[in-house]
UniProtKB/TrEMBL annotation:
The keyword Acyltransferase does not apply. The lineage of its organism: Bacteria, Pseudomonadati, Pseudomonadota, Alphaproteobacteria, Sphingomonadales. Keywords: Membrane, Transmembrane, Transmembrane helix. It holds the Pfam family DUF2231. It comes from Sphingomonas glaciei. Residues 12-132 form the DUF2231 domain. This is DUF2231 domain-containing protein.
Amino acid sequence: MASTTAPRRVIHPVHALFLACSLPLFLGAMLADWAYSSTQSVQWINFAAWLNAGALVFAGAALLWAAIDFLRADVRRDARSALYLLVLITTLVVGFITALVHGKDAWAAMPAGLTLSVITFLLALAAVWLGFSTLRAGVVR
């Protein structure tokens, strides 16, 4: 006896690309902040600022795609999709605050820059995990 559930929507490849590309950039920004806190070489904080800016571009595109997908009339909305959208919004807001902190002088950006980079990376990791686990085909046999 085979029990099946209604197939869930599958993540679009472009949405998956935007979502997945932000994670290594946020990781790189966090590692560059960590390298700056260890070495005090100003170039590391510049790397962190640029990596964070690139990650915000991809995360913003993923947020736009997720919001349009969430608001479509023909798509079933559930709590996990709403949580995914909320975590993605939070990632973008904290990432933007991180970008503002990195806009300060290198000495003034620490230790808040490193702390915010860690929080942003963890939020991005949660968003990627929720995005890929929520939006996958779910036919159970």
